[in-house]
């Protein structure tokens, strides 16, 4: 009988059979391992891609919903909303508010729920509620995306603290700690300094958010009275003429402690915060009054 062409497949020796079986198994394992390595890289690339897209979507959400208050670059707007793209925010904020969780959760929860209960703050408006779960306009994945976008500022924010790249931090009246100075290496939280006497008026005018509404350098004219609040360039000249019987000092003091007692014509009551007496000492308010009325005050 003629032997078939595939006779070479008949292996008689059991040892050779076992050997071949072993080799087949080893090859299978090697293929699986190799596949595993590739898959891991593929998954990592996929995840990075996914996260990148989340941040991109978050950027759009930020531009449409958040930048009006927090600024296009997230560096905050004085008196309107605090800086998020700030070294202070990434290194010190959680300590100041006593938050034990992660920054991710802090941002996500603040965005989701807003801070609707803080009606009378140093900021002109409240932080709105964003998540649909709390009655806001954004889906939870959109809240997550905008959170990722905010957290993505970390690398840049940690470089802040130099002369050409200052930290845009604005003092929270309830958390007056400063971000640690220096580069990323010096990011360890400092011990909060003890309050040291009255703060100087020029500093108060910034930290209390007055600059956000009042322009110190520009005079108030008919064409340019100041968009949000009266311009202050020529303030010493007019302060004594606002209210009959009130000296410039008395009028200015009243304007700060009780802004709605007299409302400058052309402006709305209730815009200027009415809680400055809780945030400055009487001594500080008086020094601010003197400073505002000083005709030689340097224009900023
Ligand atoms: C109407 C103005 C306004 C808009 C719009 C706004 N915010 Fe805010 N946001 C604020 C104010 C004011 C605060 C500070 C609230 C406080 O603590 O009194 C704040 C606080 C925050 C904080 C916490 C900051 C901290 O240090 O505690 C985060 C995070 C934040 N906003 C993110 C966002 C994001 C993201 C959006 C867009 C989805 C957004 N905000 C839109 C006004 C706004
Ligand atoms: C959120 C915006 C806002 C902030 C912040 C703000 N103001 Fe005002 N301020 C106004 C508006 C609006 C008016 C005009 C309406 C009125 O008289 O209440 C005004 C009026 C005044 C006047 C009277 C001006 C005039 O021409 O007669 C003084 C003085 C004044 N502000 C000082 C301050 C000081 C000092 C601070 C910071 C400690 C401050 N304001 C913060 C909005 C603001």
Describe the structure.
With 300 residues, this protein is mainly α. The protein folds into two domains: 67-186, no CATH class; 201-293, Cytochrome Bc1 Complex, Chain D, domain 2 (Orthogonal Bundle). Helix content is 45%, strand content 0%. It has 13 helices and no strands. The chain has helices at residues 14-65, 67-70, 87-91, 93-97, 103-113, 140-151, 154-158, 201-207, 210-213, 235-238, 248-257, 276-279, 282-293. α1 crosses α6. Residues 183-193 have low confidence and may be disordered. Bound molecules: heme C (2 copies). One heme C (HEC) binds next to α9 and α11. The site of one heme C has 24 residues, from α9 and α11.
List the helices and strands and how they pair.
Blueprint: H1 14-65, H2 67-70, H3 87-91, H4 93-97, H5 103-113, H6 140-151, H7 154-158, H8 201-207, H9 210-213, H10 235-238, H11 248-257, H12 276-279, H13 282-293
Bound molecules: heme C (2 copies).
């Amino acid at each position: 009988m003629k032997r078939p062409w595939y006779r070479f497949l008949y292996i008689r020796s059991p040892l050779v059979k076992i050997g071949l079986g072993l080799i087949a198994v080893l090859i299978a394992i090697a293929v699986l391992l190799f596949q595993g390595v590739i898959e891991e890289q593929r998954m990592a690339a996929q995840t990075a891609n996914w996260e990148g897209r989340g941040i991109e979507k978050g950027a759009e959400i930020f531009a449409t919903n958040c930048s009006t208050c927090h600024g296009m670059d997230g560096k905050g707007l004085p008196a309107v909303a605090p800086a998020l793209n700030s070294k202070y925010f990434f290194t010190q904020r959680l300590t100041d508010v006593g938050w034990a969780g992660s920054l991710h959760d802090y941002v996500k929860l603040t965005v989701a729920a807003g801070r609707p209960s803080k009606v009378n703050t140093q900021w002109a408006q409240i932080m709105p509620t964003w998540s649909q779960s709390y009655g806001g306009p954004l889906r939870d994945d959109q809240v997550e995306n905008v959170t990722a976008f905010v957290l993505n500022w970390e690398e840049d924010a940690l470089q802040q603290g130099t002369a050409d790249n200052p930290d845009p931090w604005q003092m929270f009246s309830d958390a007056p700690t400063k971000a640690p100075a220096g580069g990323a290496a010096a990011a360890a939280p400092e011990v909060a300094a003890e309050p040291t006497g009255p703060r100087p008026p020029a500093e108060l005018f910034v930290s209390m958010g007055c600059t956000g509404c009042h322009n110190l350098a520009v005079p108030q004219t008919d064409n340019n009275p100041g968009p949000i609040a009266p311009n202050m360039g020529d303030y010493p000249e007019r302060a004594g003429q606002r209210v009959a019987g009130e000296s410039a000092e008395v009028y200015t003091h009243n304007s700060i402690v009780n802004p709605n007692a007299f409302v400058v014509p052309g402006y709305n009551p209730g815009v200027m915060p009415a809680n400055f007496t809780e945030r400055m000492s009487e001594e500080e308010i008086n020094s601010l009054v003197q400073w505002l009325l000083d005709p030689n005050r340097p224009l900023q």
